[in-house]
Specification:
Elements (H helix, E strand, L loop, with lengths): L8 H10 L4 E7 L6 H15 L5 E7 L6 H7 L6 E7 L6 H15 L3 E4 L9 H14 L3 E7 L6 H15 L11 E4 H7 L14 H11 L4 E8 L11 H18 L1 H4 L10 E2 L14 H22 L2 H10 L11 H17 L4 H23 L4 H17 L1 H8 L8
Parallel strand pairs: 1-2, 1-4, 2-3, 5-7, 7-8
Antiparallel strand pairs: 4-6, 5-6
Helix pairs in contact: 2-5, 6-9, 6-14, 6-15, 8-9, 9-14, 11-12, 11-14, 13-14, 13-16
Length: about 425
């Protein structure tokens, strides 16, 4: 079933009565009753303090929560002069459909800026609202990504895959392409809304990388907002990030195919300005299960080594073979090897003729291997030193981009 709109009729009528507004803040939500009240209260405080003369609306786009998320949102004391709308969106279940509802509302209201904040945030402050909204309202920026201070092992998909690929492909150094908290101008929202992706898996997952990629492809004016430490529901990559890996990476690779004509022309990256004061707050460390990462890689090696050997170039394959024999403490390999392996996998996805979910499954253990290697390399480093390693990785991916194009253009078929 296709949905022409993510807004329910009752919500649409309420928006029509509001007329035009200046600022919309959207909060996609699903079973977040322990954190949603804090996010809404903080957002409304930020709007009240910083934009008392602006017309502001807060929209909670709920995915049919079975906890008390909607009740918690509705029962909060109302903030003066700020409208709050809590509604279940229509469409495929997932954050993407919630974002579609928020964008449609922003378009109806002709909002000058639309902000998105995740509903599981614990560290959001009123200053986040101002930091993200001001550059759109005053400086003509179209897309604002978050810039967080994170623990060195928080965001392993970003650090080892997404930042490297988006920077090398599209030429923008957006450090948190899937950060979840963004700001958009109305002209950019009008570029998102007509796209058919809302009826695809982007609506279920992968929405953050899709939003960032579209902004980069259109070469809109981009900035990053310094938000300090992000505290949310942290997940150990050894335990919980396999599904997230498949969701994010599938969208990223599909976007590579759609935008091949764009990224092949990009030769180097450029800095993206960071707005807002630097916040010197140390993120809280957490444990990471390297043993499980290595074990899962070795299980994957036993299951997939025959197809891996066909996909991965000979020199890099020798490294994979050696990793399968190594102990956890010696589990480390060079960034140059990882860059070529990831480019091999991206090209294989492009040439894959079978079920692409199979392709994503066989990529996952290699991601686990890279995370284990990254942890071992940075074990005794500070967060700042580990961040330098991430930047060095990204530079390697840029220098190796010609290898990607070579592999991408080869006449080869996998998955048949």
């Amino acid at each position: 079933m296709k949905f022409s709109t993510a807004l329910r009729q009752q919500t649409r009528r309420r928006l029509e009565r509001l007329g035009e507004v200046d600022i919309v803040v959207g909060v996609p939500c699903f079973n977040n009753d322990s954190t949603i009240s804090h996010v809404i209260k903080t957002v409304e405080e930020g709007l009240h303090i910083n934009y008392p003369d602006r017309r502001c609306v807060v929209i909670v786009a709920d995915g049919g929560s079975v906890d008390d998320s909607r009740e918690a949102s509705d029962e909060l004391e109302a903030s003066p002069w700020i409208e709050r709308i809590v509604s279940i969106y229509r469409g495929l279940p997932g954050k993407g459909s919630a974002v579609r509802a928020i964008f449609e509302a922003s378009h109806m209201l002709q909002a000058k800026v639309c902000l998105l904040f995740d509903s599981d945030l614990r560290s959001i402050t009123p200053d986040w609202v101002k930091c993200m909204a001001d550059v759109v309202l005053s400086d003509g920026v179209d897309f604002v990504a978050p810039y967080y201070t994170r623990y060195k092992y928080d965001g392993t998909i970003t650090n080892n895959i997404v930042y490297n690929l988006t920077r090398a492909l599209y030429g923008f150094r957006v450090r948190q392409p899937i950060g979840g908290d963004f700001a958009f101008s109305l002209p950019l929202i009008e570029k998102y809304l007509p796209r058919p992706a809302w009826e695809t898996d982007v609506a279920r997952f992968g929405i953050d990388i899709w939003l960032t990629t579209i902004a980069m492809v259109h070469k809109v004016k981009i900035a990053q907002a310094n938000l300090g430490v992000k505290i949310h529901d942290v997940k150990d990559p050894a335990e919980a990030l396999g599904p997230m890996f498949r969701q994010v990476v599938s969208t990223l690779l599909i976007m590579m195919e759609e935008n091949e004509a764009v990224w092949k022309k990009v030769k180097r990256s450029k800095k993206v300005p960071i707005v807002g004061p630097a916040l010197k707050i140390e993120p809280k460390p957490f444990a990471i299960n390297v043993t499980k990462l290595v074990d899962d890689f070795k299980i994957g090696y036993n299951n997939y080594k025959e197809i891996w050997k066909k996909i991965i170039a000979e020199d890099e394959w020798k490294v994979i073979e050696s990793l399968a024999e190594r102990d956890e403490k010696d589990f480390i390999f060079k960034t140059e090897i990882w860059a070529k392996i990831l480019y091999d996998l991206a090209a294989a996805f492009h040439h894959w003729k079978g079920n692409r979910q199979v392709m994503l499954s066989l990529m996952t253990p290699l991601y686990f291997a890279r995370v284990a290697s990254f942890v071992n390399k940075t074990l005794d480093m500070s967060n700042e030193e580990a961040e330098e390693v991430v930047e060095e990785q990204a530079e390697v991916f840029e220098r190796t981009k010609d290898y990607l194009i070579k592999r991408w253009d080869m006449e080869v078929t996998y998955g048949t």
